[in-house]
């Protein structure tokens, strides 16, 4: 018998939403619809706190769609399920054909039936019992364990059809991207900032990125690496713009006019001021950085205070309380680590002071800053910014 498989996506935190739940569901579904185009002809619809992704012809790539959907924030778990007609015969026949390969590694199982269509002739208890009987017949090696089964087989009788599945995959969790504001990620080529972008996208933020370069002190390869990191992030964030800003002149002016110990701090204040302008232009309410408390001299509480004072919008630092090891683990999980460790220079690593200030005081930093026309340099760098569209589909 030919079995038709579909994907059932179960909501994460969206289920907790009240009056505006629809908005979150719409945001989630439109992301899934957009992604599905890449994998063929699918129908995406929702009912009873589940999103259904149904292949509409033989060529639709269900495995590809599953892998992509598992990176869509807002979905807590995804299940591959066999769809069949809502009759006991069809359900049991489908179970006989569909389940054995899925239960191959298991020794114990239990059945759970759920009827959201209460007109179905058998109640949940009867359905579970029938299903269990069929499974035991088809796979005599299995035994029932209702307390701690290796696998739980589920049958759901829903509006349109019945669905049978065994085991579900953890998905990305979080909230649908686009449901919680817009943030501008300061994206370097390092390990931390891609992780920071991932974390805020997970909470539903739509992400744009700004990258600062210092050509010719930093290379085209360094920029290319950052664009490749952004591309990897689009698997989670969807399409994004990367704004590229040159800090070459600012860095040269700093090194000519200011005390070396303050270079990094001053530069970071320029970054914040320029990023604020970019954020205002592209409708982002916040900046996002990969800073982690105490990781380097510019990330002590005092240094962050000084840096923060130059930003005109809130700065979110989702990695602030994480150890480097934890950040690395996450960066491996999301697939950015190998690219992040490619050895190209960053504008923060050219003109670095030998003895950076770790306990800076704002007044003293401002004294240094006043040696240059801060606003004019910020405006000039901002005026030279250009943006690159990074598309999930390319
Ligand atoms: P990362 O691993 O992301 O490079 P880091 O640990 O190297 O971070 P810093 O170089 O001090 O730390 O940078 C701290 C944060 O400042 C970065 O996480 C990033 O958000 C931002 N940042 C640093 N360099 C750049 C850059 N060239 N362009 C955009 N943002 C940057
Ligand atoms: Mg860095």
Structure at a glance:
The protein is an alpha/beta fold and 394 residues long. It has 13 helices and 15 strands.
Could you explain the architecture of this structure?
39% of the residues lie in helices and 22% in strands. With 394 residues, it is of the alpha/beta class. It folds into two domains: 4-170, VC0802-like; 182-390, Rossmann fold (3-Layer(aba) Sandwich). The strands form two sheets. Strands 1, 2, 3, 4, 5, 6, 7, 8 and 9 form a nine-stranded mixed sheet that branches. The protein is elongated. It starts with a strand and ends with a strand. The model has no long low-confidence stretch (mean pLDDT 94). Bound molecules: adenosine-5'-triphosphate and magnesium ion. The site of adenosine-5'-triphosphate has 19 residues, from α5 and β11. The site of magnesium ion has 4 residues, from loops.
Number of strands: 15
Q: Give the distance, in angstroms, between the N- and C-terminal Cα atoms.
A: 38 Å
Largest sheet: 9 strands, mixed
Q: Total helix count?
A: 13
Instruction: Write the CATH fold name of the largest domain.
Output: Rossmann fold
CATH superfamily of the largest domain: HUPs
Q: Helicity, in percent?
A: 25-40%
User: Which structural class is indicated by helix and strand composition?
Assistant: alpha/beta
Uncertain stretches of 5 or more adjacent residues? none
